[in-house]
UniProtKB/TrEMBL annotation, chain A:
InterPro entries: DUF2344
Pfam families with a match to the protein in the record: DUF2344 (PF10105)
Listed name of the protein: Radical SAM protein
DUF2344 domain boundaries: 4-195
Disordered as annotated region, ranges: 210-244
Top-rank taxon: Bacteria
NCBIfam families noted in UniProt: sam_1_link_chp (TIGR03936)
UniProtKB/TrEMBL annotation, chain B:
Xref: InterPro entries: CHP03960_rSAM, Elp3/MiaA/NifB-like_rSAM, Radical_SAM_N2, rSAM, rSAM_horseshoe, rSAM_sf
Protein known as: B12-binding domain-containing radical SAM protein
GO MF annotations, alphabetized: catalytic activity; iron-sulfur cluster binding
Domain Radical SAM core: 260-502
Organism name: Planotetraspora silvatica
Transmembrane spans: none
Entry superkingdom: Bacteria
SUPFAM superfamilies with a match to the protein in the record: Radical SAM enzymes
Source taxonomy: Bacteria, Bacillati, Actinomycetota, Actinomycetes, Streptosporangiales
Length: 244, 640
């Protein structure tokens, strides 16, 4: 392996129903189709050196997923971006490819910005629920994991949360029925607090229960900026190095 | 009239179901054509879960061929899991295609490929969800023609009530021909409605329309005769055989799913048909004669398929892949071409001989050297003569000795239980065989690190085989023999730990037997099982033997037949069998003679290398054996 390439990609539309295993198969095949000289691990059963950092859950869309590809000969990141994007199915869209500098990418992904569209939900009820959630020290929620039902706190990981008006939707989205949009910054902790855990927290503290399942999108993830309280671009390190 | 996509309504249900990705479509190389620009619209169904159905070769081939026709389009639909089925019912979302999420009922044809009879209840679910009446006679001009194909369609009688039509054999040319009949009929303004369309299809002689045939019964339950009930309908319907597979190099663009499926590889059929003459094997009987794809076409298909798909494994499919006349050259050529590219090559369905170890070594050159699989099928020499599986114990020991000494550590052996004339000792012979295999392996390697797995399933007599007259073994006997075999293996101090044992209990085989050799009266049982919640009968967690038996008892009560009558009863030579009017080309007298030879331990050779023994297929169907060698080689690929 002579070079590591860091890839930011989006998971959009119906492709949000892919699991992280589906994505890794799709990426491996796309890499082969695109003829990218991916490096392989040594050993009895060699596998391509592609690693994934904190994949969004099945059913959740994302504008900020990250993976890293090890290649066996130097590649032009822009060329790889274009080739990989063509090879992946529409909906798995490659946004940026950059040559890796020092440090682990996964370590930089400290927090995510999540957007939850809640069609048919009541704005005032949502605002009240957010207020009560933020006022609490701990909000214990439950989730069924592979190891059985787990109880954990969903409050402390939530750095900020805001209820947005339907009109503030991002440009380009089709107008639909009225809905509430929740935007939240959530730190990556163990156990991971996912948007649906926070939603369950809102239900537990204030009885807030949207009438239909949320449409969740990860808008960004990266190192948490202490001054803004928002995740910064995890590629800042590579960009800064590149300027030297 | 255009149809709307059901996706927005389906999408709202997907967050609530398991593995939603299987319902969204958008696979690489999938095709969505403009609805209004097509005249003939096919919905192709594989009646099992997406993960099983997507890789199916038959569906992929027809999908691609039909979509290549200018005025024809094809989309795919699969069985939905019970969680989504419940939501679709409560929300009123009908059965949809995964390509453009169009309602299945809006298509002209619903073509269903049955590899196994255990998909019958899933057909009923799909019809019901689609809003298509279950009974063919209740359908109107607004419903598609429900058409069955696949190996199970060689006896479609148990589902005759639910089908408008069935086709036997290779689908490529008949699917095109059916499209042409529909295109012409629609072009004329669809005169006479679906009845005339079915009549036009039936009169070609290549499409079986069950409702144009009446079945008469004897008072004792046996069939008296099956006769056309209107003029212009042929008394026999023949299977279809594609000659020259090089002319039909499909799939060219394999579907690449996002969801995980049972076969994650690019598969190329290296030949069709098999004349080894194993008497239990329906596939070998109904797909004759052998037609090879040439080494150069195989090489081209592998190259294009890998490029189009990005798959990292190639499977060379056929009923007995090592029998290709140039398999050595194919193996070496492909292994050379893909050396160092992390591309795996696999060769399922190999027979027991040392040559296969050379092949396996060649194939594992580029990747994993896992286990080798052989299928002696019968545990004793006598049993193997009955089933015409010409493998001696010496062959097997010699083969596994070679395998173990060349670095293979694991050998899998496939067997069947409940074969005609089988006695306890034949099954227990499997234990002796397995111990000898381990003993040979230890001697060859000087190590105790060799393993062998015995895998065994219940035998089900199938239509169009010499065993179509045979009594199926009852499940109590099968289960007892399987238990005794297990004890014989596990109880062995010296070898027991080196031998794995996998088996299936005998009850599902009885249901499969009922459906395989059933007639139209079995249709009511299928429906009763489905109404009682029967789904996904090929899945042990969904299959219920009790549900089938309860339904059968209710349906058959007071009549002349029951489950035993269909399964464990031996038939007389001249009894009319439910599929006798459906012609696979096999001469009935030859089949009977082969059945008589079976019980007298008489073997039959392979007609590829010995004179024709008059099974009847080639003269009846106007076909011939097409095999190499071509003498050609695979050249290295040019590096781009």
């Amino acid at each position: 392996m002579v070079q590591r390439l860091r890839v930011r990609y989006a998971k959009r539309g119906r492709l949000r129903f892919t699991s992280h295993r589906d994505i890794s198969r799709a990426v491996e095949r796309a890499v082969r189709r695109a003829g990218i000289p991916v490096a392989f691990s040594a050993g009895f059963s060699p596998h391509p050196k592609i690693s994934y950092a904190g994949a969004a859950p099945t059913g959740v869309a994302s504008e900020a997923e990250y993976l890293e590809i090890g290649v066996s000969r130097p590649c032009d990141p822009d060329r790889i971006r274009a080739d990989l994007d063509v090879s992946l199915p529409p909906g798995l869209d490659v946004l940026e490819v950059i040559e890796a500098r020092a440090g682990s990418l996964a370590d930089r992904l400290e927090a995510s910005v999540w957007q939850l569209r809640l069609p048919g939900a009541d704005v005032a009820a949502a605002e009240q629920a957010v207020k009560e959630f933020e006022a609490a020290d701990r909000v214990e929620v439950e989730r069924l994991t592979k190891k059985g039902m787990r109880r954990f706190d969903a409050r402390q990981a939530v750095r900020s949360m805001a209820v947005m008006d339907d009109r503030e939707r991002t440009a380009g989205q089709e107008p639909g029925p009225p809905c509430v949009i929740l935007r939240m910054v959530v730190r990556h902790e163990t156990p991971a607090v996912r948007p649906d855990d926070v939603l369950m927290g809102l239900r537990l503290v204030a009885g807030f229960a949207p009438p239909s399942p949320p449409e969740v999108t990860r808008l960004a993830q990266g190192p948490l900026d202490a001054t803004t309280g928002e995740p910064a671009d995890p590629f800042d390190v590579e960009r800064a190095d590149g300027d030297l | 009239m255009s149809v709307e996509s059901l996706f927005p309504r389906l999408e709202a249900l997907l967050p609530k179901v398991q593995k939603p990705i299987q319902y969204v479509g958008g696979e690489l190389n999938s095709t969505v054509k403009d609805w209004d620009e097509a005249t003939v619209r096919w919905a192709l169904m594989y009646p099992d879960a997406y993960e099983v159905g997507l890789p199916n070769q038959g569906v992929q081939i027809l999908y691609e061929i039909l979509n290549e026709l200018p005025e024809t389009m094809a989309e795919r639909t699969y069985a939905v899991w019970p969680d989504l089925e419940a939501l679709m019912r409560s929300e009123g979302v009908p059965q949809f295609t995964v390509d453009a999420h169009r309602p299945v009922r809006a298509f002209d044809v619903l073509g269903v490929s049955f590899s196994t009879e255990l998909g019958y209840t899933n057909l009923l679910t799909a019809l019901d969800l689609a809003g298509i009446p279950l009974d063919a006679v209740d359908r109107t001009d607004d419903d598609p023609i429900v058409l069955a194909g696949g190996h199970a369609a060689f006896n479609p009688e148990p589902i005759a009530d639910f089908l408008d039509a069935a086709v036997l054999g290779d689908g490529e040319q008949i699917a095109i021909a059916i499209s042409e009949v529909i295109r012409e009929w629609k072009g004329e303004g669809a005169p006479g409605g679906r009845d005339e369309l079915l009549m036009r299809l039936a009169s070609t002689g290549g499409v079986y329309v069950p409702k144009f045939y009446d079945v008469e019964y004897h008072p004792d339950g046996r069939i008296k005769r099956v006769v056309p009930n209107r003029s212009g309908v042929p008394s026999r319907v023949f299977k279809h055989t594609v000659m020259d597979l090089d002319e039909w190099p499909y799939p060219k663009k394999p579907l690449v799913p996002l969801a995980e499926t049972v076969h994650e590889r690019f598969s190329v059929e290296i030949f069709r048909g098999c004349t080894r003459g194993c008497r239990f094997c329906q596939a070998g009987m109904i797909t004759r004669p052998v037609r090879e794809r040439s080494i150069t076409t195989i090489g081209d298909m592998v190259e294009a398929g890998l490029k189009e798909s990005g798959f990292s494994e190639v499977g060379l499919l056929s009923l007995s892949s090592a029998d290709h006349s140039e398999i050595g050259e194919v193996a070496k050529g492909l292994a050379d071409r893909y050396e160092g590219t992390q591309t795996g090559l696999s060769l399922p369905s190999t027979r027991v001989d040392a040559f296969n170890i050379d092949l396996a070594n060649e194939f594992s050159r580029n990747g994993r050297r896992s286990g080798l699989t052989f299928a002696p099928e019968g545990g004793s020499e006598r049993m193997r003569k009955v089933i015409n599986k010409m493998v001696t114990e010496e062959d097997l020991i010699r083969t596994v000795t070679t395998a173990y000494s060349q670095g293979w550590r694991q050998v899998k052996l496939y067997f069947m239980c409940g074969l005609p004339t089988e006695e306890d000792i034949d099954v227990l012979g499997i234990a002796d065989l397995a111990k000898k295999v381990i003993k040979a392996g230890r001697e060859a390697t000087g190590s105790r690190d060799v393993r062998c797995t015995v895998s065994i399933g219940g035998f089900v007599p199938k239509p169009h085989t010499p065993f179509q007259w045979a009594a199926q073994c009852d499940h109590e006997t099968v289960d007892r023999r399987l238990r005794e075999l297990r004890n014989a293996l596990r109880g062995d101090k010296e070898y027991g730990k080196a031998i794995g044992y996998r088996y299936h209990d005998g009850k599902p085989s009885i249901v499969e037997g009922l459906l395989s050799r059933g007639d139209r009266r079995v249709g009511s049982v299928i429906r009763a099982v489905w109404e009682d919640g029967g789904r996904f009968d090929g899945w042990s967690e969904h299959f219920s033997y009790e549900r089938w038996m309860t339904a059968a008892e209710r349906v058959f009560s007071g009549g002349a037949v029951d489950v035993d009558w269909y399964t464990t009863r031996e038939r007389e030579e001249h009894e009319v069998l439910p599929w006798d009017h459906l012609d696979a080309g096999l001469d009935r007298e030859w089949l009977w003679q082969d059945w008589q030879d079976a019980v007298s331990d008489v073997e039959v050779e392979d007609c590829r290398w010995t004179p024709c023994y008059d099974c009847g297929v080639c003269p009846t169907m106007g076909t011939e054996i097409q095999i190499g060698p071509t003498g050609k080689k695979l050249l290295p690929l040019t590096v781009v």
